[in-house]
Amino acid sequence: MTLLTVENYIDGAYAPAASGGWLTCEDPYAAAPWGRMPRSGPEDVDRAVAAARRAFTAGPWARMTAPQRGAQLHRIAEAIAAHAEELARIESRDNGKTYREMLGQLKRVPEWYRFYGGLCDKINGAVLPTEKPEMMNYTRYEPLGVIGMITPWNSPLMLLSWKLAPALAAGNVAVVKPSEYTSASALRFAEILTEEAGLPAGVLNVVTGLGAEAGAALTAHPDVAKVAFTGGIGGGRAAYMAAAANLRPASLELGGKSPNIIFADADLEQAARGVVSGIFGSGGQSCVAGSRALVHRSVHDALVARMAELTGKIRLGDPMEDSTDIGPVANRAQYDRIMTCIGWAKEDGATCVTGGAALADPKGGAALFVAPTIFTGVAPKDRIAQEEVFGPVLAVLPFDTEEEAIAIANDSAFGLGAGIWTRDVARVHRVAARIEAGTIWVNSYKGGSHISPFGGYKQSGIGREGGIEMIHDYLQVKSIWLNLAEEAPYPFPL
């Protein structure tokens, strides 16, 4: 079988790794390799950062005005929209998520570039009314420089765009190290943005490889002005420490163990549907998956029964088929992690209501499927209630009072998202104010917008993505003093 060969994208052209090494691109549904990509190292990262730095300091990108950058981002949006189906097919083949889901993401991605493109010429400095009448003081906002971006495998181009759109709008350049499991779409994306949307060469560079090799070299590079990372806590901590060693800022979007809190007065049918879709959508491979259901004891049994019934209707299979709700687990390492977590729950005495095991490929192949799983009888300190699974596993925990629900919800190292299900408006505001999470959904779960900030409390991350304020995370402010007096002021006579 001939494998498709993809290469690094540096300075507007494809290039192999300096070492000549390769990594395999695996198709999770076919359970077979379909391509290969460079196994890059520090030399490749050096080349990419140097290309980005040249683009930042010289050439057309460095000379673009803010309105011109805005027009460039709008051209990027149009190019992505034109290639949404192609890019969605690549992503589905790489990570096993349904084509329907990936296409939906790619159709929304252009909105990020349109939104931040519209902000390019609205970043204003100010003339400051200081106490010094002989001096004029004003500020400028300027880009940081080369942004090192580390992106995950679950929603590759969407999560890249959350970083890239505001970074470009601010005038920065980027070197991206995508997940070694899903690098193909980022490489094609860079080619489209450069060759079709007209992004100047070197502004966007993509270097593939392992986190401990290419990723570590990128986050520790002295010419990287900021690190923007999405992934697990271990990788995020390493990226943060590498950035700190160079006194560079970092934004981190990490994991979650998000609670869905269902009170007794909730619309139980809507709550059941919201919880099931919130954990089993994307096969649970989502940072905001609602992996804990906190259910008032008076409605616990009825809600669990309805959730189990809905779960039984979920269809697993070929991610390219419209009838499929969940594709296979994205890779062997994640599959093993999910099965380990299911084992923990059973060891700790939880009751498996449905699922709890691997499933055979519906078409008889070797794809990695895990049955959507619900556990009851879970205690707040159980491993299945504390550890992020990143798979289709729901832990159900009962509660009796509002105070108890809040305490259980906050009894986590994470704080990314939370859902509240109730008809009591006063309770909505009381509980939402006390939940330690960056995003709260009320009588719904998941959903977001480029207009709204997204990020986590505690170990779920540092910083936010989305919203007007986000562009300032990719800018630095400069204060300029101008003497208006006939003579320059001196601290002592000269």
Automatic annotation (TrEMBL):
<dbReference type="InterPro" id="IPR029510">
    <property type="entry name" value="Ald_DH_CS_GLU"/>
</dbReference>
<dbReference type="InterPro" id="IPR016160">
    <property type="entry name" value="Ald_DH_CS_CYS"/>
</dbReference>
<dbReference type="InterPro" id="IPR015590">
    <property type="entry name" value="Aldehyde_DH_dom"/>
</dbReference>
<comment type="similarity">
    <text>Belongs to the aldehyde dehydrogenase family.</text>
</comment>
<feature type="domain" description="Aldehyde dehydrogenase">
    <location>
        <begin position="23"/>
        <end position="480"/>
    </location>
</feature>
<feature type="active site">
    <location>
        <position position="253"/>
    </location>
</feature>
<keyword id="KW-0558">Oxidation</keyword>
<dbReference type="InterPro" id="IPR016161">
    <property type="entry name" value="Ald_DH/histidinol_DH"/>
</dbReference>
<dbReference type="InterPro" id="IPR016162">
    <property type="entry name" value="Ald_DH_N"/>
</dbReference>
<keyword id="KW-0560">Oxidoreductase</keyword>
<dbReference type="Pfam" id="PF00171">
    <property type="entry name" value="Aldedh"/>
</dbReference>
<protein>
    <submittedName>
        <fullName>Aldehyde dehydrogenase family protein</fullName>
    </submittedName>
</protein>
<dbReference type="InterPro" id="IPR016163">
    <property type="entry name" value="Ald_DH_C"/>
</dbReference>
<dbReference type="GO" id="GO:0016620">
    <property type="term" value="F:oxidoreductase activity, acting on the aldehyde or oxo group of donors, NAD or NADP as acceptor"/>
</dbReference>
